[in-house]
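Example for tutorial group B:
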């Protein structure tokens, strides 16, 4: 199931398209959601789709595959990460473009705010994962984090990237143009950063499995404050929220979860 709260809406809209709708990215204005389908309805290879969050239009299938994807700031392109290539898909008229870098195994790609660069999570041959900056017009990728880092969030000014140490789990902000990383405060085991706010002063953090409490972490002071809670209205058969996206202003969001009603449990010792 995929649920979205569109800009200006007072309640969530069920935007589930086929049988396995999983949200991948949300446009900054909250009006468009990029999602994948990988159930029986989408066929053997699955598909990547785009849809208006108010449900006013049908979903548009952009490409095969359910790979990690992101939508450009101007909403004209979608980047899709395959292990051996990055594919740029035009949302409207245009030709598909392919980017390949020798020896890199891609896992994720996120757009920079300028729409000309990508933050790419990839592993070089024989090395661990790290984040690279990659211009879509050409040129070699440039590493901006050390080996053994993952996640990929870009600040609104494009000067900082968020990454986590894959071994220790510690979070840090890395300057894109070089310099020492800035460590972030300790965090819990079931906490996931979901994006920066509009000014880049706070980081939104989702806490929990089913009911997602959204906190704001002030990057200057390290103070955390409660922002909002996002949770399925009917939690029956839902183990956890699988993916969640939040707009920079925090007013719109999309999330996906799987509901299983085919398990029967026996509870003993009730009074």
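The residue assignment follows.
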């Amino acid at each position: 199931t995929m649920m979205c709260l569109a800009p200006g809406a007072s309640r969530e809209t069920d935007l589930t398209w086929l049988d396995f709708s999983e949200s991948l990215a949300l446009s900054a204005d909250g009006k468009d959601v990029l999602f994948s389908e990988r159930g029986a309805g989408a066929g053997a290879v699955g598909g990547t789709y785009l849809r208006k969050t108010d449900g006013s239009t049908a979903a548009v299938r952009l490409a095969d595959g359910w790979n990690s994807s992101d939508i450009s700031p101007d909403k004209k392109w979608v980047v899709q990460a395959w292990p051996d290539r990055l594919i740029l898909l035009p949302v409207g008229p245009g030709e598909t473009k392919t980017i390949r870098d020798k020896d890199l195994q891609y896992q994720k790609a996120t757009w920079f705010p300028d729409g000309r660069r990508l933050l790419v999570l990839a592993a070089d041959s024989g090395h661990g994962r790290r984040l690279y900056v990659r211009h879509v017009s050409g040129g070699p990728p440039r590493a901006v984090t050390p080996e053994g880092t993952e996640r990929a969030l870009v600040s609104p000014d494009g000067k900082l990237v968020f990454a986590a140490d894959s071994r220790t789990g510690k979070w840090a902000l890395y300057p894109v143009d070089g310099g020492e990383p800035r460590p972030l405060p300790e965090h819990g085991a079931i906490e996931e950063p979901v994006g920066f706010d509009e000014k880049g002063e706070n980081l939104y953090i989702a806490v929990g499995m089913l009911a997602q409490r959204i906190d704001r972490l002030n990057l200057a002071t390290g103070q955390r404050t409660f922002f909002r809670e996002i949770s399925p209205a009917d939690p029956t058969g839902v183990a956890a929220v699988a993916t969640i996206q939040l707009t920079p202003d925090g007013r719109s969001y999309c999330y996906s979860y799987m509901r299983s009603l085919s398990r029967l449990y026996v509870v003993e010792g009730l009074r």
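The longest strand covers residues 238-246. Compare this with the pattern of hydrophobic and polar residues in the output above.
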